[in-house]
Amino acid sequence: MRVFIAIEFEQHIKDYLNKIQKQVMSYSTDGNFSRPENFHLTLKFIGEVQPSFLGSITAAMAQSVHGIKPFKLRLHNLGNFPRGNKMIIWMGVGGELDVLNLLFNQLETSLGSIGIAKDTRGYSPHITLGREVRLAVPFSKVASAVAIDHQQQIIEVHKISLMESKREEGRLMYIPLHRQPLAD
User: Fold this and answer.
1) Which of 8, 11, 5 is nearest to 63 (CA)?
2) Under 8 Å between Cβ of 49 and 162
3) Share of the chain above pLDDT 90, in %
4) pTM score, two decimals?
5) Domain annotation for the chain: domains and CATH numbers
6) How far apart are CA 71 and CA 75, in angstroms?
7) Catalytic site positions
8) 3-state secondary structure 17-74
9) Which of 9, 48, 69, 126 could link 13 by a cystine bridge, Cβ 3.0 to 4.6 Å?
10) CA–CA gap between residue 89 and residue 124 (Å, rounded)
11) In the predicted structure, residue 10 carries a pLDDT above the cut 70
């Protein structure tokens, strides 16, 4: 099984991200764009595991949320990771980033205790809108043309989710396997 830990979004956030994604697509000549139902904020990509290991992961998730109360993030800005003549286009997040980073660090520690390697690159929170995107104009033009409502698009974080990534009928699906509430 291929798994990762993420923050899932309410439908209104997915709908808003889809609206932004469509604007980006209008400036694109090519790309592999995320399906709106798959929008999420990855906390930790784990990769391939045996189903028998899932209990250890969910126990580590429970340990990682100790002392973390629900918090709020907001959609922030468009960004990109260049990949040759293509790029990954993403939406950044703002808000209570100190709490998000604490959650990430505690998750890294608890997963590390069960043998999952820590991320050496550090945490760069982003929501992938499209991969292998080719733009018809410079990215800076797209970023300035796409207006993002920073104040209205609030992501309320009450839980973290263990997700399975798999293909069904050729379509990439992210299926929640376990949802771990934050401490109240």
Assistant:
1) 5
2) no
3) 87
4) 0.93
5) 2-181 (3.90.1140.10)
6) 14
7) 40, 126
8) HHHHHHHHHCCEEEEEECCHHHCEEEEEEEEECCHHHHHHHHHHHHHHCCCCCCEEEE
9) 9
10) 13
11) yes
